[in-house]
Amino acid sequence: MTGYKTIGKSTPFIDAAEKVTGRAVYTTDMKFPNMLYGKILRSTIPHGRIVGIDTSEAEKLPGVEAVITAKDTPLIKFGIFHEDWYILAHEKVRFAGDEVAAVAAINEDIAGEALKLIKVHYEELPAVFDPKEAAQPDAVDINGVKNNIASKFHVERGNVDQAFEESHLIIEKDFYTTQVYQAYMETMAAVVKPEDNGRLTFYLPIQIPSKTRVTYAKALGMKIEDIHVIQPTTGGGFGAKMETVLHLIAAVLAQKTGKPVRIINTREEDFEGGNPRVPMHFHVKMGFSKEGMIKAKDLVLYAGAGGRACYGVPVLGTACFRHDQLYKYENVRANGYLVYTNMVPSGCFRGFGNSQGTFCIECIMDEAAEKLGIDPADIRLRNAVYPGFVSCHGWVINSCLLQECITKAVEAAQWQEKRKEKKSGRGIGLACCNHVSGYSAFFPPFHGSAAVIRMNMDGKFLVMSGEIEIGQGQKTAFAMMAAEALDVPLENVRMAPIDTDYIPFGLGCWASRSTALGGKAIQNAAEDLKGKILQFVSQEYGIAVEQLSIANGVVVNTQGEEITDLSEIGRKYLYKTNGSYLYGQGYVDPGTVVPDMATKMGNPSITYPFACHIAEVDVDVETGVVKVIDYVAAHDVGKVINPMGAEGQIEGGVAMGIGWALTENMVYQNGVLKNSHFLDYRLPGSKDVPDMKSIFLESNDPNTGFGSKGLGEPAINPVVPAIANAIHDAVGIRLTELPFTPDKVLKAIQEKKKNKEGEPCRNF
Amino acid sequence: MVHHIKLKVNGREYEILVNAHELLADVLRDRLGLMGTKVGCGAGECGSCTVMMNGKPVNGCLVLGVQADGKEIETIEGVAHGTELHPLQKNFIKHGAIQCGFCTPGLIMTTKSMIEENPDLSEEDIREGIIGHICRCTGYQKIVEAVAATAKEIREKGREGA
């Protein structure tokens, strides 16, 4: 679509100047008068009964103002999906890193000294780390539920067994995906300030400032409105910065001392007690016709919840069936088990289970293409969903350019040419994905978004949205959308800071929802405000409202003649109404259908994004080192709001996927994390990521903010299988266990030499 | 053990008392209120806390405050001239090299020192030069572009001057 003045043009981020000068204030930079420094004592063992905690020596240390254990907290069971959380470990510790006690002191050094003086007496219990082992009847009990099963997911459509019988080709494999760490650069932190009226003000680097209040109110036995959250500049999140007991520990310390308390995770603590990706073990069976059409799929999944259930509950379902909307499935079955283990609680990480599921499916698609003698791009084109398609689970694929994503990516990557030229150790691989833009089952009461726009007395605008900037450029995209909808210059729009006392109740940054939903709410609020402005101008100037419009920041008549400037109107309205501002309000109700708890039928998202990625790799057959040398990512983003920001999402998402594919893995020994540093938890560096090409396809969804779709998560979903498939193209091995480290690559190459088909190798 | 140190930060002289174990990054942040220097790992593994000490980039978390005694330090707060941003800062903004911004101050310090040393930088040089920095948001591409654009501007300016 053409004719837009602001959106669709690469625009520097509106908060970049304060970041590039060091002026931006993050939670970890915040200080208040009389502020105390909190620190958390964490369990050193993965599973044990707490026999006793002696805090007396710590309490005596000069400068210590509070020492708390579970008994000092409200001891209310709470949680996000399962109520199996306490603010501090109660009676038991369930993972190494579990929060046992905390102190508040006049400085960090004293707080650290005090932790060393707390004596915890544990009775160690047997521990279990693998989700499949933890689900065995003889496994140690972690949370008092049968077989440690935190939740199950079952779905079945069509006639799976019969469809397998009718299949020409069946591929059946196990896949293992690792627990990886989001590694946002600002660790988790909180400053909590007690207020005189019993309220608590939380300054948090968080993706869900509004939604978290519901959980925290329950945990603290307070009213939701007494939990006041302010979100300072936030140094990344990638799914991790959701509810965490760290915030609540700071709250209890603040209540106990009557002073503001700040807690900042050290990097080690953040590794040990963060909110990493849900590790998964899949068994997947897929049947194909001779022509490469998918006949059936059967998936069994064991996922590790860790010591308490976090977002693993919906991540499980996502990994079981979200990818069923990528291809035209008729016969599918999935049985998933989220199992408690004595590991750190796992949760959201960009991709949210769909990236794990996509890895399995897209590797099998590649193998099926090879076995059937079909081009890997072609087998996907044959199976791809299309506009108007309704999936076997009821999801309505409204706008969709999946097929175009494949053809454009293939063209840009010179797919055909590169597949033909067989350079030693070089290979090219392709993978597709689908995703959501919001997900209705997360917060069943509603899942749209709301916005308020205020016209200031200078005729400029203040946009209030409860959707969140964590570095992805959300504020800029929103300001651009507001400027476009109001038809005013971008510099006349400001985004209000995130303060739950003033902003709408936004569900926050997850499920790639903000631009599509938050943007639509802003668009609607802008329409509302525009109508009110023109109504006021009509009254003031005696011109019929139908003859007025706003263009480039001024009010014009049907001839395009300027009637008045908005700065004039802003001041006039305010004076005339005794200091009132003119507000526009808007919301979007996405009209989705929450998947039924039993049948799983529904239509959970307002729109569905799609993508096709192509990776080119060099595999060193002597060392086993894999290097990604070229990359193309084609995305159906609905409508690009800020091309530069969208490219940034893709480049960052692909880099993160490269890390997950090749180097990143949280390595444990007897339940204790052994690589809680960046030196031995290897993130991609500047030389590990190639220059990549981003391609945007615009399906202009009819229901979302300017037709946009989510991009943050689709950017990572296909990366791992694209690399896996490229490795296969390069050296003929199929790797099914992450990460693809040199030892596994070499072993598989050797196995391949011995057998014909390389057996997948495991090393844990 | 408390030490009395003198140091110059962004052109201003300071005389302060620091504990022996206090890190330069903490001295800058907690004693001088220069919060632009970010601490991402505390172990010299992420580069976020990079500052210049006597013209060379150092990790502020690997240098003790007492080691900065008598030294000249430059932090992110000293890079712009008043409200006029440094060309590198302008290009980071223009090229979208900033997302969450937490790694940005450290990257600006390192790349500024690279450009000052030799603006004749290839893409490979830039990627090599920032290897000690972790950026989790951008995938590095736009950072490389921003640095390359600045180096080019400075090279062209140098030619005009000559």
UniProtKB/TrEMBL annotation, chain A:
Which Pfam families does this chain map to? Answer: Ald_Xan_dh_C (PF01315), MoCoBD_1 (PF02738), MoCoBD_2 (PF20256)
- Name of the featured protein: Aldehyde oxidase/xanthine dehydrogenase a/b hammerhead domain-containing protein
Q: Which organism is it from?
A: Formimonas warabiya
- Extract one GO molecular function annotation from the record: oxidoreductase activity
Task: Kindly list the organism's lineage.
Answer: Bacteria, Bacillati, Bacillota, Clostridia, Eubacteriales
Q: Which InterPro entries match?
A: Ald_Oxase/Xan_DH_a/b, Ald_Oxase/Xan_DH_a/b_sf, Ald_Oxase/xanthine_DH-like, AldOxase/xan_DH_MoCoBD1, AldOxase/xan_DH_MoCoBD2, AldOxase/xan_DH_Mopterin-bd_sf
Return the SMART domains for the record: Ald_Xan_dh_C
Which parts of the sequence belong to the Aldehyde oxidase/xanthine dehydrogenase a/b hammerhead domain? Answer: 21-126
Automatic annotation (TrEMBL), chain B:
- Keywords of this protein's UniProt record, alphabetized? 2Fe-2S, Iron, Iron-sulfur, Metal-binding, Oxidoreductase
Q: Which residues form a coiled coil?
A: none
A Gene Ontology molecular function term of the record: 2 iron, 2 sulfur cluster binding
Q: Where is the 2Fe-2S ferredoxin-type domain?
A: 3-79
- Give the source's domain of life in one word: Bacteria
The pathway that the record names for this protein is: Alkaloid degradation; nicotine degradation
Stored PROSITE patterns: 2FE2S_FER_1, 2FE2S_FER_2
Protein name as it appears in the record:
2Fe-2S ferredoxin-type domain-containing protein
